[in-house]
Amino acid sequence: MKPEDGESLSLYLAVSRTTVSAVLVKDYQGSQHPVYYVSKSLLDDETRYSHLEKLILALIMASTKLRHYFETHRIHIKANYPIKSVLRKPELSGRMAKWSVKLSTYDLIYEPRTAIKSQALADFVADFSSDIQPEADSEVKLLDEDTGEWTLHTDGASNMRGTGLGIILKSPQENIIPQSSSCEFQATNNEAEYEALIEGLQLARDMNIRHLHVFVDSLLITNQFNGSYMVKGDKLAKYLEVVKDIVGYFYTFDITQVPREENDEADELANLAPSLKICDDVNIPILHILNPAIDIENSNHILKPLNVDTLEISWTTPVKEYLQTGKIPDGETNHRAFKTRISRYIIIRDTLYRKSVAGPYLKCLEKPETLEVLKDIHEGDCGNHTGGRALLSKILRTGYFWPTMRKDAMSYSQRCDACQRHSNILHQRAEPLYPIVSSWPFMKWGMDIVGKLPKAPGGKVFMLAMTDYFLKWIEAEAFVQVREKEVISFIKRNTLTRFGIPAEITCDNGSQFIGKRTTNFCEAWGIKMITSTPVHPQANGQAESSNKIIINNLKKKLGSKKGKWAEELPFVLWADRTTTKNATGQTPFSLVFGSEVVLPTEMIIPTARTSLQTIETNNEVLSQDIDTIDESRDIAKIIMAAYQQKIAKSYNKNIRIRRFQVGDLVLRKAFQNTTNPTNGKRAPKWEGPYRIDSEAGKGAYRLSTMEGEPLPRAWNAIHLKIYFI
Hints:
CATH topology of the largest domain: Nucleotidyltransferase, domain 5
Structural class: alpha/beta
Strand order of the largest sheet: 10-9-6-7-8-11-12
Mean pLDDT: 81
Oligomer: single chain
Number of domains: 5
């Protein structure tokens, strides 16, 4: 049935394993009448397309054979599958991108399939034949998942001809992004492997990939990254540091060593061999790297060819010129693609507008109008400091357009000072767990103050506690106040005169611990005082854990008589010393004295050792225990190392490493003592900016103000975030 001029038509698609077909339909008096039917038998390579690609191929075939209808009518594409979403995916293959450009020139509307109203269209009841319908549904599910894992194959080669890098990046849909790079500097094979890995990680990061699995054929790199091998040489250590810094960007990351034959494509790219077989529509860019990736001073080490003049030309100039005179710019090589792009623009009263998919025409802007629009919509009278995506949506709804508006909106929102200072506090763990190991008993102690507690007899409201990292032995006393004098006296009574001189004592930054008197005392006795970073008690976790144990046991023993905690403290300590610890598998008492303590219960109800043993056998067993106490401690040390490794593995599952470089600007989390109390709930959550001066180790950094004045203590990365300017 012949359609009228300008009348809307409907298009139904059908796909089988070997053919694709389409029928153009006209709605007339409540029934559907076929206008034209087209079909195509799939070529051998086309049969290997995904089913969604076959569906789009049917649409392309119909638009080619029925071009005169597509150019003069509005076509309603009736399909229950997300054709429009597939065409707009960012990781399109080459042919899909071409198809998307071709279809953009037509007036197409994508709608869900409705019931067929004609018996002649019975073959088009469904988009896919029944035998491939489940496979198509699976592809849709995979398309909707944004958590698909990408795979990266890298390889580096260093020989007489120079150093080359090969990269193969694969999407979850098996689309391939190959890349080959030539290094303009000398490098060893191991350095070339690291360069290839870093180049691939940077490519994945630039594409906003969050889930990545890397395959390399270098056993050295894999084991150095996993910590199985030690890193020898400063240069390889710097390479490993760069790799770990980039890896912190990904949500999930894994690296696997594979045999060389399973990494042959990346190896061939690294050697630029002609045997690599890829699709004809995939281009391999050749990049020239001037400096190593670890050279911070020359971070822009990729030399890109210049294709445009240094003079900046307005992006609207060639568009207006073509619409007014029909002249195509001299530098435009693909005239068809340029005309397709320009077909979305129109000039109204000497002003350039872009046709919008939904809504009014979009006025095309240039600088500095774009900055004014961004500023006014983001922070003006009607602005509410939204994020980049919401800012972009608001600009489009208002009716403005420029080619880089998405990137500019994201960047402007990211660099907004008010948004950064009032952004949410980051609770994600920023550093892996670093277990603290003590080599021998009473070598390393953790010290902390607890209080104020309920007032005990004598006005005692503070508790000073020390815990041995190896044996988990706790010493604690009650005090009216804890000054440097009390700290020194406590260390002498409970540590020096009982267990000897410790090598290290870990504490916080309290004035009692870092004062001149305490510092001089520790230096005189050869004791190293290690202070944790401010507002980060996890750095002295052993002392904090002991405090929690003591307080919980006191609460359970005292009930409502909280003021007697100082009298009950020695019994709580004795109970803890005679309790088996999970970390060592033994009691602190047995590890110190070589035998288990006799409990009061054994005096009431005798046990075998209190009722059956004689003095002679008891002395013999005690002598044996004392002789083998070193073996017991060694076993406890092994158990403790395994326990720490297990805890660290569980802790490190949910971390997102936050690393900073020297010179970076950061914001620091605002605390109660650093904010203005008059601000109330209006107080910013972050303060600064500060500059990174140096790395203090294990996720801690030394900061300075913008005027160059250093802050007195190092700060942990969990309290910092990058500041964008």
